[in-house]
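Example 490, ligand zinc ion.
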Amino acid sequence: MYEGVFKPPRGRCWNWILGALAILAALFVAAAVVVFGVNRFTLELELKGEPEVNIEYGGRFQEPGAVLCLRGSLLCRDGFTPKDARVSIQGSVDEKTPGKYTLTYLADYRGLHAQAQRVVRIVDTVCPEIFLTPDPEGSLIPGTPYEEAGYRAVDNHDGDITDRVVRTEQYGKILYAVTDSSGNPGYAQREIPFYDPIPPEITLTGGEHYAIPTGVFYTEPGYAARDNVDGDLTEHVQVEGEVDWLTPGVYPVTYTVSDGFENTTTVTRRVEVTAAQRPQTVWPENKTIYLTFDDGPGPETERLLDILDSYGVKATFFVTSRGCGEMMKEIVERGHSIGIHTVSHDYAQIYASPEAFFADLFAMQDVIYQNTGIKTTLMRFPGGSSNTVSRETSEGLMTLLTRAVQDAGFQYFDWNVDSNDAGGAKKAQTVFDNVIEGVTRNPVSVVLQHDIHSFSVDAVEDILIWGLNNGYTFAPLTPNSPGVHHRVQN
Ligand code: ZN
């Protein structure tokens, strides 16, 4: 039996709701405990402005301050500034003293601690200045030492640092330099009319007295010029003066140079062209024949030497350079005189100029020396001193050369008996006749023959026999023998 409407029991419903609420509250409390227990708070200090600040000396440091921030790791992550928190600063900045200063920012808040640092540098990068007192009007006199008009050095930090100025006087200017205590440099410069009273110096290689023998071509022995200001001035030296290397005498050669301040130095070299002493001519007392043979040695020379040997007669050979060096040696070894004729026997070449002639002369002297060990001073001009081949090209050449070769220490020999073996005579008999005819005219004869001609060599034995039978002495030429010089025609 059931009557009425079912009504759930009231008491049981409320119990169910209350139970659910209790469970929810328990869950909420558990969640809060978990959240707040894990959420950690940190205290942070954030500097306003830069953590490193440079301030020029003389400027002011304005403390930018720092912000304190309390921040949670889960909740309140944006953080906030607690109203009752305080930031303290340790350290200070001395704006009057350049240096490095460290400021430490500290904060404590409910057991939490925060710290930050800022570096402040007071720097001096301003260079000191040097002020020059102007030179009074008319005070700069060239030639007198410069008198300092005064200067002052001032630094923004160090103040007056005049006593630290280093002053350097250079040519034409004075440099002033100073450094402040921070190492900043300051410079100034003053122009002064520099005066250099010291002239350059010239040194002569070979000295102020320089001697060369006649006939040796003069070449500048060298020089150098130095100046205290300008340094090496060698290439600016003007050299003046001519040296006649063919004529004995003293020739001044001047060397002149000026420096940049118009100091001029002149030195003079006295070049002496020396003359060799001329040998004393000794005339033989007896009737004498000097047989001379030009243009060899050649194929006939050995035979000629044998003929001379067999009569014990010595002769003279004026040689050329034709590749018979061995024969030159033989001529000397067999007691004959040897003299210079020419290297080339090329008239156009050797009589082209004094230079050409002397070049040939010394070259031939050297050839003979190389072959015989004798430095002969005997010589014969090709064509004789009376030749006129140079008249066209070089007027007065033989007049010059005949004198110059003697001043150079040579003795030249012409002839007074011509066998004419280089001219019309083509047979031994003619050569013999010409020689005997000439010899009989002179007490002392210098006979011209050429040992490159067979027929001329053929005539020699008869000439020797004739001479010896007629009371003549045959002799070789020496520097003291008569030169029998021709009349010069150019
Ligand atoms: Zn000749």
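Summary: The first strand starts at residue 41 and ends at 47.
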